[in-house]
From TrEMBL:
Residues 770-780 have a biased composition (Low complexity). This is dolichyl-diphosphooligosaccharide--protein glycotransferase. Pfam families: STT3, STT3-PglB_core. The lineage of its organism: Eukaryota, Viridiplantae, Streptophyta, Embryophyta, Tracheophyta. Keywords: Endoplasmic reticulum, Glycoprotein, Glycosyltransferase, Magnesium, Manganese, Membrane, Metal-binding, Transferase, Transmembrane, Transmembrane helix. Residues 476-487 have a biased composition (Basic and acidic residues). It comes from Rhynchospora pubera. Catalytic subunit of the oligosaccharyl transferase (OST) complex that catalyzes the initial transfer of a defined glycan (Glc(3)Man(9)GlcNAc(2) in eukaryotes) from the lipid carrier dolichol-pyrophosphate to an asparagine residue within an Asn-X-Ser/Thr consensus motif in nascent polypeptide chains, the first step in protein N-glycosylation. N-glycosylation occurs cotranslationally and the complex associates with the Sec61 complex at the channel-forming translocon complex that mediates protein translocation across the endoplasmic reticulum (ER).
Length: 788
């Protein structure tokens, strides 16, 4: 009866714990969703940044025309006159996910617009990512660590920065796919289930559809498999977790048009194939060892290793040949930038020009992961006590993500789940030790305080009950002697069983005594718990502040606070609305590539370059035009059939991310293709200046003129609030461009190319207007190469 009661109470406790865990996870999902809504509450339901506008435009096309037209869509409004095949150059995971959600909502008679679904996709998947983190951490260190890690991930600023409402980018769904793929891999590794291995391949396929960062998965998992093999931790579960992923995952990845045969032809995937061969050789060795005698096993091992080394040598030779035939050794530019942080700045300035591709600073780590930076080392130590396949994978994931985040600030997003997992493990282990210590001291105190009274009560009750018991035993012995003998035998057996159990419990007691150092003093435990709670509260405050102030503002609508109050700068949408309503549908707009997606989506006008950056020569052409004098720039834009030029200028309001600050990248990218553009011509003693000490080339280039035209009229001095000095050339006129629109705060300026004038040779123009002037026009219209 006692054992059944104990089992019943334990099962009830587990059931209650399960219900409580589900309730806590639901609350974590609600927190993850709601903390990302500050952008909608403070501003409005609007798409953020630059890339999300392209994704929104593609989702609109998908929901309107269907998936078959989406795969075959040729977009003639981008990269004029080249165009772009959208279905074969975009990762479709985000678009298909949002389109499916929109279609499902409309089938349930929920009237949601495509824009609304796009705005709230990232917050919804942030809740899914938190739950996936719980599942992954639970497989590594248990339920407590999983719940803690999920709560931390739901609020970590690094993830919030890419998943606020309106941040409709690939990372919105890719981080969930990344964590869920890792969870299914660890689940398969722990269980050896082929069912979870198949699900793991499907999750990897969704990751491939969603983000180019899938190469991180297909390289991290082989590294972990190789680590397990080298450290002697090979098992059949490891084979089941890895082999189906390589075979089925690669076949599925090749179905994605943007990946295609790159899944088997690029260097990012070769490591997985090499480890695939190695694990089969190891599996064959273990299999032979189980069926042969030791003597035959040595012979067979020699044979298998010989054949295996030969096969590996052939495969490596083929891979080396393929790699050597590629100028970039089979690696993409971004991958080479991760392996060699100086590669992009040397050879591919278009990659180095992106701000999110720059290495982070130390304060950015504290901003994005805050106190997790101090908890991660404790989590690493906890993973080694004891070390398992799952915990070793978590440590490897952390180490690699720390390296990649140090190379590229954008990959702080990949570090965030690893830091949350390690911090959750550290906090769970710390709270486990502290609460166990408090429980030990409290129970010991109550036992000591109540031992005297129960002892006295026990003596009195034993004396009172001894007399009737003696009478009963006497009567029983006289009436039933055989029963008394059986009771004696039973008592002897009970005594022997007690002695055996006491002897059996000697070792556990000694073991417990050996673990006594883990029991901390009561005062230290209480203070430590209090400090951890305070630390958690500070982390929550920082996360809420980051979500509300640092990462909620959309880049298309800017705000600033001053003594006059709140100022809203809505110049971008003002400029795009002007283009949409005051230009022809077929007009072409030239700008730097940063604003291409927004111009196409919001102004519905054809652009020369955009944020896809797939054609470096085309971008260099625009950079060369911006870096050239006005006449040469006009010839370049006119050859591209450009009618309007858009520039972003922040000198009046102090907006630092304007085109003047980006101008040196235009010069470098243009000079990389057209050698007559030299960066040194725009620098004065190695310094980039736009004041009176600026170079003649700088003061006469198109970007300077379009940015500072009539700027002196604002304050009479031409003081640039971003560069913090007066401009050098204040009074000048435009000969080949005319200003057609400038926004309220001068942040966006739009110019129109003037029509080409008649060219008349000779000193006296009035006397040569007849047939002679006609012949002179035909002779004067020489077509030069505008890029030379």
């Amino acid at each position: 009866m006692a054992t059944s009661k104990v089992e019943g109470s334990s099962s009830l406790r587990h059931a209650f714990g399960g219900v409580l865990s589900v309730f806590i996870l639901l609350l974590i999902g609600v927190v993850a969703f709601s903390i990302r809504l500050f952008s909608v509450i403070k501003y409005e339901s609007v798409i953020h940044e630059f890339d999300p506008y392209f994704n929104y435009r593609v989702t609109q096309f998908l929901s309107k025309n269907g998936i078959y037209d989406f795969w075959n869509w040729f977009d003639d409004r981008t990269w004029y006159p080249l165009g772009r095949v959208i279905g074969g150059t975009v990762y479709p995971g985000l678009t298909l996910t949002a389109g499916t959600m929109w279609k499902l909502a409309n089938s349930l008679n929920i009237p949601l617009s495509v824009e609304t679904v796009c705005v709230f996709t990232a917050p919804i998947f942030s809740a899914f990512a938190a739950w996936a983190t719980y599942l992954l951490t639970k497989e590594v260190k248990g339920t407590g660590a999983g719940i803690t890690a999920a709560a931390i991930l739901a609020m970590v600023p690094s993830y919030i920065s890419r998943s606020v409402a309106g941040s409709y980018d690939n990372e919105a769904v890719a981080i969930f796919a990344l964590i869920f793929t890792f969870y299914l891999y660890i689940k398969t590794l722990n269980t050896g289930s082929l069912f979870y291995a198949t699900l793991n391949s499907l999750a990897y396929f969704y990751m491939v559809c969603s983000w180019g960062g899938y190469t991180f998965i297909i390289n991290l998992i082989p590294m972990h498999v190789l680590l397990c093999i080298v450290t002697g931790r090979y098992s059949s579960r490891l084979y089941i977790a890895y082999a189906p992923l390589v075979v089925l995952g690669t076949l599925l990845a090749a179905l994605v048009p943007v990946v295609g045969f790159n899944a088997v032809m690029t260097s990012e995937h070769f490591g997985s194939f090499l480890v695939f061969i190695i694990i089969h050789v190891v599996a064959l060795v273990y299999y032979i060892k189980g069926i042969l005698t030791p003597r035959l096993f040595k012979v067979a091992t020699t044979l298998v290793l010989t054949v295996g080394i030969a096969v590996c040598a052939v495969v490596v030779a083929i891979l080396v040949a393929l790699v050597a035939s590629s100028p970039t050794k089979g690696w993409s530019g971004r991958s080479l930038s991760l392996l060699d942080p100086t590669y992009a700045s040397k050879y591919i300035p278009i990659i180095a020009s992106v701000s999110e591709h720059q290495p982070p600073t130390w304060p950015s780590y504290f901003m994005d992961i805050n106190v997790l930076a101090f908890l991660v080392p404790a989590g690493i130590v906890a993973c080694f006590l004891p070390l398992s396949d799952a915990s070793s994978f978590a440590v490897l994931y952390l180490v690699t993500s720390v390296y990649f985040s140090g190379v590229m600030v954008r990959l702080m997003l990949v570090l965030a789940p690893a830091a949350c997992i390690m911090s959750g493990i550290a906090l769970s282990e710390a709270f486990g030790v502290l609460t166990r210590s408090m429980k030990f001291h409290i129970t010991k105190y109550f036992e000591c305080s109540h031992t005297e009274a129960p002892a006295k009560l026990g003596e009195s009750t034993s004396t009172e009950s001894s007399a009737p018991l003696e009478n009963m035993t006497k009567s029983d012995t006289t009436e039933k002697p055989e029963v008394a003998r059986k009771e004696k035998v039973a008592r002897r057996k009970q005594k022997k069983e007690k002695e055996l159990t006491e002897n059996a419990h000697v070792k556990p007691v000694s073991a417990k005594k050996e673990k006594r150092p883990l029991v901390l003093p009561l005062e230290a435990s209480i203070v430590s718990v209090f400090l951890l709670i305070v630390l958690g509260g500070l982390y929550v405050l920082h996360c809420v502040w980051a979500a509300a102030e640092a990462y909620s503002a959309p880049s298309i609508v800017l705000t600033s606070h001053s003594h006059d109050g709140l100022h809203v700068f809505d110049d971008f949408r003002e400029a795009y609305a002007w283009l949409r309503h005051n230009t022809e549908v077929d007009d072409k707009v030239a700008s730097w590539w940063d604003y291409g997606y927004q111009t196409t989506a919001m102004a519905n006008r054809t652009v020369i370059v955009d944020n896809n950056t797939w054609n470096n020569t085309h971008i260099a052409t625009v950079g060369t035009a911006m870096s050239s004098p006005e006449k040469a720039a006009w010839e370049i834009f006119n050859s591209l059939d450009v009618k309007y030029v858009l520039v972003v200028f922040g000198g009046l309001v102090g907006y630092p991310s304007d085109d003047i600050n980006k101008f040196l990248w235009m010069v470098r990218i243009g000079g990389g293709v057209f050698p007559h553009i030299k960066e040194a011509d725009y620098l004065k003693d190695g310094q980039y200046r736009v004041d009176a000490q600026a170079t003649h080339t700088m003061l006469n280039c198109l970007m300077y003129k379009l940015s500072y035209y009539r700027f002196v009229e604002t304050d009479g001095k031409g003081f640039d609030r971003v560069r913090r000095y007066e401009i050098g050339k204040k009074h000048f006129k435009l000969t080949h461009f005319e200003e057609v629109f400038t926004t309220h705060h001068w942040m966006v300026r739009i110019y129109k190319l003037k029509p080409q004038k008649n060219r008349i040779r000779g000193k006296s123009r009035k006397s040569k207007l007849g047939s002679k002037s006609t012949s002179s026009k035909s002779g004067g219209m020489t077509h030069k190469n505008p890029w030379n």
